[in-house]
Amino acid sequence: MATTINGAAAPAIETPRSPRRRPGGPKARTNFELYAWLFMRISGVLLLFLVLGHLFIMNILDGGVQRIGFGFVAGRWASPFWRTWDLLMLVLAELHGTNGLRTVINDYAERAQTRFWLKMLLYVSAGLVITLGSLVIFTFDPNIS
Amino acid sequence: MPKAPAGTLYRGREGMWSWVAHRITGVLIFFFLFAHVLDTALVRVSPSSYDSVIATYKNPIVNLMEVGLVAAVVFHALNGIRITLIDFWKSGPRFQRQMLYTEIVVWLVLVVPGAFFMLKHMFETLFGSAS
Lengths: 145, 131
Hints:
B: 131 residues, mainly alpha
């Protein structure tokens, strides 16, 4: 039964502070941006050790880049420690970089269509890099010729 | 997105420029990571194809670019610590400028000797070893 004021139907009043209706129907509100922000801090701290350690070992420690070759990689990847290190670094760095580029695209691509397609390209490339990189780490064969 | 009115220029000083540098180094590192995963994937093809792509990294000019990459990564890492401290440490925002200058000093302390060791071999190859 409708509310009446002095016998006349009262106009419907929206609940104060009701969520804004988005075009294309109401969407479930998530905390995605909060988790993305938190992920950048957590992965950043982990990458600090993984990446700076990687750069030091590869570029500075005994002979640096000059000593790197297939044999060097085979020796390193014989140990599960370095395979875990590299896998963790690959996944965290790619996700960290993808989220960073997502922010950059959202900031500078002004047309909705451009934003959408640039981000699709970004996500496809991130998927490829993570898939290819982990496949290489998991299926590495030191006796390949 | 509305365009900024003509004739105004935001001068955000240290805070703004460190933000700009963080973006530029971040995008640079992202594209390098893409190339680096592809070149490393050649270990799955054959030892000779991997060794030939790694030979590129040993070229003196590319070696110089690697020093630039390391300098960019170290900046991004140190500035990332600063951003995290601004977000989570209660006095972080108040000391953001001092943290940037500290960061620049630490960056120099890490990058200058790092560049020396990275280029040592290149100089020895180009001009002959001192030993």
